[in-house]
Each structure stands twice: as C-alpha cells, then as structure tokens.
Amino acid sequence: MAWQAKYEELDDDTRAYLADVRGRKGEGTPGVFARRLNPWPLIGAIGGPLVILATMGVTWGTSLIYGDPVRLALLQTAGLVLGGWMIWAAVRSWLAVRGPKWAGFWVYCDPLNVYEAKGEQLTINSVADVGEVKAYHARYPNGMYRASLLHFKLGTGKKEYYLIVRGEQKADDIAKYYNYLAWARGPEGGGRAHTEPARLGRIAAYVVDHEYEPQTEEQLGLEIAEIPKAPMKANVAPPVILPYLVLALATVTCFLGMARANVPARDESLFRLIRETRRAPQIRAYLFDPRNTLHRDDAEKMLAPLYDQPTGEVRQAAKDPVVMAGMLALLDDLRTADVPVVSIRVREDAPPDEFGSSRAVNLRDRLASGIAGYVGPELLVFVDAPEGLPAHVEFTYKLVPEAKEATAKSPISKDNPTLYHVVGTLVIRPQVGKSDPTQKAYTASTAFATSVPDFMMLHASNMLLRDLIGVERATVGGGPAPPPAEPKK
User: Fold this and answer.
1) Nearest Cα to 131, choosing from 168, 185, 90, 171?
2) What is the residue-wise DSSP string for 332-389?
3) CA 465, 466, 470: angle at the middle one, nearest 5?
C-alpha cells in the first residue's frame, strides 16, 4: 500500500539509507536507481524573466499605459509576482539539492519498497510480496519512445501497483530485477529466500547487469548492508508559513511600487503621444489630469498655437470689427481653457405662431455648426447654455412683419402670406461675468414667410456668420438659399 511523506518526516535510518543511495546513484546498492528529469527549474529560470519582460512590455509598451495607474498595477502585479515566483522556485530547487529537506527526483527500487521522490515529497510502496512485474513501453505514432509503465502484481495477484519510468532500458531492468526476486523467493529459488534482503537485492541487481549471479564477494560489490524494513514517519515537519508571508509581502510591495511607478511612466507616454499627434483633445486630456506634472508647461505651449490659424483667418475675413473683436477674444480665452466648451443660446421673442422654438433651434444649430466647422471641432465645442445663466454666444430675436398693404386684388392669404424680417441682438461674452460683452443689433435684409423656416434661418445665420468668421457656412440642400418669392398680386 502506497503512502506519502515529506523527506524530513521519515525516520533517521530511512533518510540516511536514501541519502546514501542517492549519493551513490545506485552503485553498490541493493536495488535499481532511476533518475527522473525535473525540467521545472530550467523552465522557471527561462520563463520567469520572459513573463516579467512580457508583463512590462504589454503594460508599458502599449495603450494600456494610458489607463488608470492603480488598475494597471493590478495586472502588473499578477505578471511580476508570477515571474518572480518562477525564478525563485528555480533558484530554490538548485539551492535545495543538497539540503536536508530535499529528496530529489528519482525512483529507487529495493527488495522491500519502491521509493518515488519528487522534490521534498516521497511516495513509498511496499513490494516485499511482489509476484510478477511486466514492462509496457509507450511510443509516439512516429515510433519514438515516450515512456514505460511497470505493472506490479503483488501477493497472489489480486493487488496491483503501477509505476511510470522514463527510459526503456531502465524499465526493463526494474522488471527483470523484481522478477528475479519473485523467483528467488519462490519454491524454485532454493535457499535464496532466506538470504538477507540487502544481499538478495544486490544479487538481483547484479543479475540484471550480467545475466548471472555473482560468484565472489568482490563481484557482488555490496556497499549497503542493511535495508530499512519498515520506513515510517518519525518526525514532524514544521508548517510552511514563511514563504507565504514573503509572497504576500512581495505582492503588496509590488502593487504599491508599480502603482507609484505607473504615474510618471504614464505621464511620459501621454506626453509622447500628444507631441506626435499635436491634437487639442489629447493635449487637454493631459492637462486636465492633475497626475500629469512632468510636462505641463510644454503641453500648454503646444495647445495655444493651435488657435493661431483660425484666429488669423477670423481677423482677416470677419466683416464687422466689433463682432470680430468679441470672437477673437472668445478664441483667445479658449487657448488656455481646460475644456473648449462655448455655451450658446438662441431665443425667439413673441413668436407669431407656435413654431418659434423650432425656428430658434434651427438657427442655433446653424450658428454652432458654422462656427465650429470653421474654427475646428477639436478646438471649439458648443453646448446649450444652462437655464438662467448668460451664454458665451447669445442671439435674441423676433420676427417683424414686413410693412405692406393688402388690396382687394391681393388680400393677405395663403397665396400672399405675411413676410417677416429677423430682427435681433447678438451678444458675445468671452469670459462670462468677468469681462464686458460685445453686442450688435441686426436686421435681416430679406423677409421670408414662416412657411419656409429653413430659408429664413439660413439667411439669418449667414448674416451673423459673415460678421463672426467672415464666411457663410450654412446652406440648404448643398447650395445657397434662393431669393424669397415675390408675393402674388
């Protein structure tokens, strides 16, 4: 029956016996020794640094660095702790090879037990009553050797035990070793069954190597005279707490350290991005974040010149000097604004019908899209002014009917509607509540019927845009608005 124990938990005689066997690598011992490969230290030594490099490359070398430093530190901690643990496990395995707690990686078969060592752990299976052992060799489809399975039949054959061994010849040797022992202990073995286990085991090992029994003590070459007959747990291994405490401390330290290191690394990456793109939204995002402190002066110097071109064009093209001065002051204020938001309000007073609010929205949208499209949507964004607060750009108007007289031949009717002029006041407040506003009164030169609101608002918006930016931006159907139709007489 198989049982497990840590190497340090075994009784002193068994540990001394196995240490002697391991040191001799099976030579002169009463059994067969088979080494097992342990690739994990090499995997850890190579894979650990690769995991660390990949973690830092992915988190600091990609767009992930632009995210939240604390959240990024969580991802980094996972990769760095894993990579560090792999490296430490490799170093620990190499340092522990000759330590008192380390068994190694091997299989040792003696006349009484099979010992399977994996690091600090041992699996021990009693095979004193072995009856027969068969070796089965597994191969890949291409015929290359893979591994061997040893099938132990114990006692009367009702008990079984399986052992996996790497090495075709070594597996055959173990099978031959135990089959000789089963024969020697059987009725055909003669007096061999009464031979001391250590001596009988050494004879079996000699037979495996030479196909015949040794004739002299010199040929026998037995170096270990006694075998532990009943290995047992005689010691108590202390609980393994320190490594877990170190791991927890390393995890916390790594997280706090990376959360702190990510801030300047993110700062550098963001500034490198805005220096390459030189786009206002990225520059403002950099300046808006208080954690970015390394290049604030340089970023502010990059933002202001972006307004030079639209400011120069407005200065050259705007038709009215008073309105132009207000528009230029508004643009200059945006050079250093945290967000390029400009509030706008358009209101129609005393509308002659129920569509006054829709006409105001129509005109507001035309003004906002015209100015933003000319200046640049990344440099200026319009929003509705909050109710009860003054707006940066405000136009209040009313529809004034055109003076005309109805006659008997041409009364005011559907075919001869009332025409209205847009009359209002434009107010520009560069800094709401901090500077004097600029304002100008307007009267549209052309009158329109309320049945053609798009043309009416198009004419009004172009009237304002000529003074604001010097360009008529708004159109209907891709072209300029036609002149109003003459009323039928």
Assistant:
1) 185
2) HHHTT-SS-EEEEEEEESS-SSTTHHHHHHHHHHHHHHHHHHHH-TTT-EEEEPPTTS
3) 105
Q: Which two tokens stand for residue 2?
A: 């198989």
Ramachandran category for residue 176: left, alpha or beta (phi over 0 → left; psi -120 to 50 → alpha): alpha
**Rounded to an integer, what distance in angstroms lies between the CA atom of residue 386 and that of residue 87?**
60
Q: How many CB atoms lie within 10 A of CB 257?
A: 14
Strand, coil or helix: 151: strand
Name residue 159's beta-bridge partners.
154
CA–CA separation, 428 and 383 (whole Å): 15
Q: Which amino acid, 187?
A: P
The C-alpha atoms of residue 388 and residue 322 are separated, in whole angstroms, by: 26
> pLDDT by residue for the chain (489 residues), tens digit each?
789 999 999 999 999 999 999 999 999 999 999 999 888 889 999 999 999 999 999 999 999 999 999 999 999 999 999 999 999 988 888 887 767 888 999 999 999 999 999 999 999 999 999 999 999 999 999 999 999 999 999 987 678 999 999 999 999 999 999 999 999 999 999 889 999 999 999 999 999 999 999 999 899 999 998 999 899 999 888 887 888 899 999 999 999 999 999 999 999 999 999 999 999 999 999 999 999 999 999 999 999 999 999 999 999 998 899 999 999 999 999 998 889 999 999 999 999 999 999 999 999 999 999 999 999 999 999 999 999 899 999 999 999 998 765 444 444 445 668 899 999 999 999 988 777 899 999 999 999 999 999 999 999 999 999 999 988 764 443 333 344 444 444
DSSP letter for 68, please: -
| 23/101 Cα distance (integer angstroms) | 15
Q: Say what the alpha-carbon torsion angle 298, 301, 306, 308 is, to the nearest 10 degrees.
A: -160
Find the helix or strand (DSSP H, E) in which 88 lies. helix 69-95
| Number of neighbours of residue 91 by Cβ within 10 angstroms | 14
Rg (CA), the chain: 46
Q: How far apart are CA 77 and CA 253, in angstroms?
A: 9
Q: What is the pTM of this model?
A: 0.70
Of 273, 479, 456, the closest CA to residue 360 belongs to 456
What is the 8-class DSSP label of residue 437?
Answer: P
Helices (H), 142-213: 168-185, 197-210
Q: Which of 31, 77, 87, 86 is nearest to 56 (CA)?
A: 77
